[in-house]
Amino acid sequence: MISKNSLLVASIFLSLLLGFTIYAQKQNAPKANWEYHVWSFNNWGEATGKLSEEGNQGWELVAVTEIPIAFDGGSAHNGSVTIYLKRAK
Prior knowledge:
Layout: H1 4-28, E1 34-41, H2 44-55, E2 60-67, E3 70-72, E4 75-77, E5 80-88
Antiparallel strand pairs: 1-5, 2-5, 3-4
């Protein structure tokens, strides 16, 4: 019969082996280099069209900022939508 001590030693050994394997894989993982694009539009319709176009070329949406239409003393100031994109080089 296998003793409890032998099982304990074997489980510790396998845990350490697994840990070192995971550590080694992380050390050899390549680091991604990114390139970025920033686009500004007058409305969401234009932004959505550009997102579809850029998405087909491998760009990913990172963030969106929106400045809503503002009314100041009876006159409207145009709002804007800005999209931030990235993709691996």
